[in-house]
Design a protein that fits this description.
Elements: H1 3-14, H2 22-35, H3 39-52, H4 57-69, H5 73-86, H6 90-102, H7 106-118, H8 124-136, H9 140-153, H10 158-170, H11 174-187, H12 192-204, H13 208-221, H14 226-238, H15 242-255, H16 260-272, H17 276-289, H18 294-306, H19 310-317, E1 345-349, H20 354-360, H21 364-369, E2 373-378, H22 383-386, E3 394-397, E4 409-412, H23 416-419, H24 439-449, E5 455-460, H25 470-473, E6 488-492, H26 499-508, E7 511-513, H27 521-529, E8 533-537, H28 540-547, E9 552-556, E10 577-581, H29 588-612
Parallel strand pairs: 1-2, 1-4, 2-3, 5-6, 5-8, 6-7, 8-9, 9-10
Helix pairs in contact: 2-3, 3-4, 4-5, 5-6, 6-7, 6-8, 7-8, 8-9, 8-10, 9-10, 10-11, 11-12, 12-13, 12-14, 13-14, 14-15, 14-16, 15-16, 16-17, 16-18, 17-18, 18-19, 20-28, 24-27
């Protein structure tokens, strides 16, 4: 060791500990005070730290956080910006972005994120910041990628898993959403909001038992939570366990007597149980509490229609315009049937489902008969079928209705019964009111169907899975299996069957499935015209077959949609339709047995007629 090294060695050994920086000491004191909830003391310690070192970045950032907690956002922004100027550190970028996000300045949050990334400051929390900003900007798909990147950097980041699940749900990517919410639950079990979101997704996937189990688990965690009771009742409703659902809605009301959700759901269940007077009483209670409750108005209207009180029902349905809706916005007035429309142009617009449009298209010739120039706006799959409605001047896609040229009035097609003052005795019910199917299409389907030696029977077993009452309307194909033993040719009219039903369809080998060749409702109409009978649940094909005058047997739940009324085996709307209803036991097997017996009898009569000929 030379002389210089020996001197350096002695200096190192003999050196005294460096006295801590005064700013750092005060900053550490401030952190302890924040941890113990003494924010005023923390503020004073921060001021002392800055007196010792006015550029002490950790103190500047802490003052920003304290201002943020006090909801003094502009002051918080100033402090954190000063911290970044002194020492650009990732946690300061995170603080700045958080403040901007709270202020709703999502675009600036993204710039903060980009700057942090330029400096190499990548972290799960920064990606979370970006994801949340993108959600605020409605850029949901990109937000999902940000949350996923956060999880790649920190596989145990609960908030990233949770937000990813929530955002995927908003995108309609239900299976993916459920996987991330399952991860969220595994990372931080028993979080009630996460459990309830999982339960709702499982319910939408028709995994009812799992959804019910989760709801009950949430109830064990928070037995005093009325919303959990409501959600549990909703799951039981979709399982058609209405009496049990009613008990849960009553539990919710015991916890929160004014719960609108619980009251509305209870009224709906009472309707399904045919306890109509009690349902009316609840709707009146809702109206007393809030006279502007349009959902209660609509519930009352549908009850009246179901019971045949059409005058009150049709007028009550107009309350739907006080609820969120996708009906186009027009400058022109809505026609209510009172205004003269001779030599005026009226735009009749489809405003609900495909079956609704088919059912109420019967009124279009009545509007034409008043001397109006009628432009019909319908859903795209119906346009080839309805464009030939007699008397109309034009048929356009409903998506173009708002931008259509000069008209004098508009009228939602579902409001036409109200406009014409329809009663049970005045329902316009011709045997067939749709335009004749294209002869070329009919011939093409005849060739596909082959020989016509047996009774041709079209089958539809499920409707739109997104329909709120789908759990009461649709049935599994296997439930119809006993019909297939009858000596008939069975043809599927079922578009887009579920995976379970698709498997059953392939396994039966008794149903001819040509639905991949159905391009629109004009095609379906041509196919139906070549059949002898359509057996269907309550869906758009039931309306199509009925409107074409085809013999149609419709299978209905115990308390069906209002248009089918109660306790009758004929339809007030479709003369060629026969209704097969569940009884109080609400057993589809019993309904199918009735249909099978009727089908067996029909086949026997046809065979006898053939022998006589």
């Amino acid at each position: 060791m030379n002389r210089r090294e020996r001197r350096a060695s002695r200096t190192k050994v003999e050196a005294k500990p460096v006295k801590p920086d005064g700013a750092a000491s005060f900053y550490e004191a401030a952190l302890r005070e924040v941890a113990s909830g003494r924010h005023a003391d923390a503020q004073r310690s921060c001021q002392l730290a800055l007196a010792a070192n006015e550029g002490h970045a950790p103190t500047l950032n802490l003052l920003g956080i304290l201002a943020l907690q006090a909801q003094q956002y502009e002051i918080a922004l100033q402090w954190v910006s000063c911290a970044l100027q002194q020492d650009p550190q990732p946690q300061y970028f995170l603080s700045l972005g958080t403040i901007l996000q709270i202020q709703g300045r999502s675009g600036e949050v993204l710039k903060v994120f980009d700057k942090a990334m330029e400096l190499g400051f990548e972290s799960a929390d920064l990606w979370m910041l970006r994801g949340n900003a993108l959600v605020s900007l409605q850029q949901l798909a990109d937000a999902v990628l940000s949350f996923q990147r956060a999880l790649e950097l920190n596989a145990r980041h609960w908030d990233a898993a949770n937000q990813c699940g929530i955002t995927l749900q908003r995108l309609g990517r239900i299976d993916e959403a459920l996987a991330y919410l399952d991860l969220s639950d595994a990372l931080r079990p028993n979080q009630v909001p996460t459990l309830m979101m999982r339960g709702a997704l499982l319910n939408s996937l028709k995994r009812f038992e799992e959804a019910l189990s989760i709801c009950r688990r949430a109830n064990e965690i928070e037995p005093g939570n009325a919303d959990i009771c409501v959600k549990t009742g909703i799951v039981l409703r979709t399982m058609r366990r209405d009496e049990e659902a009613l008990e849960w809605f009553d539990r919710a009301l015991a916890l929160q007597p004014s719960s609108r959700d619980a009251l509305h759901d209870k009224a709906a269940v009472l309707t399904k149980l045919r306890r109509f007077d009690e349902a009316f009483d609840i709707y009146r209670r809702l109206k007393d509490a809030d006279p502007s409750d349009a959902l209660a108005d609509l519930g009352i209207a549908h009850l009246n229609l179901l019971l045949g009180n059409f005058e009150a029902g049709w007028s009550g349905r107009e309350a739907r315009w006080n609820l969120p809706n996708s009906y186009p916005r027009f400058q022109q007035p809505m026609w209510h049937g009172q205004e003269g429309i001779r030599d005026r142009t009226i735009l009749v617009v489809a405003d609900e489902g495909l079956g609704d449009t088919i059912q109420f298209a019967r009124y279009v010739p009545m509007v034409v008969a008043l001397g109006a120039r009628v432009v019909l706006a319908v859903q795209k799959p119906l346009r080839p079928l309805l464009s030939k409605m007699p008397g109309i001047s034009q048929c356009i896609p409903v998506s173009e209705a708002a931008d259509f040229g000069a008209v004098d009035f508009h009228c939602p097609i579902m409001s036409l019964p109200f406009a014409f003052g329809t009663t049970l005795a005045t329902i316009p019910a011709p045997v067939s009111y749709l335009p004749e199917a294209d002869p070329d299409r009919i011939q093409a389907w005849e060739e596909r169907l082959g020989t016509h030696e047996k009774l041709r029977v079209g089958l539809v077993w499920s409707g739109n899975p997104k329909h709120l009452d789908d759990h009461n309307r649709s049935i599994p194909l296997r439930t119809l299996s006993s019909l297939l033993d009858e000596d008939a040719s069975f043809i599927s009219l079922q578009k887009e069957p579920s995976l379970e039903n698709k498997t059953a369809l392939q396994e039966t080998g008794r149903i001819l499935d040509l639905t991949s060749q159905l391009s629109d409702f004009a095609d379906t109409a041509a196919l139906v015209k070549g059949l002898d009978l359509v057996i269907t649940v309550d869906t758009s094909v039931a309306h199509l077959a009925g409107a074409l005058g085809c013999p149609t047997w419709t299978l209905l739940s115990y308390t069906p949609d209002y248009r089918w009324l109660l306790d009758r085996d004929d339809s007030a709307w479709y003369p060629s339709m026969r209704l097969f209803r569940q009884r109080e036991r609400r057993d589809w097997a019993e309904v199918v047995e009735q249909v099978r017996n009727a089908l067996h009898e029909l086949i026997g009569r046809r065979a006898l007629s053939s022998d006589i000929c």
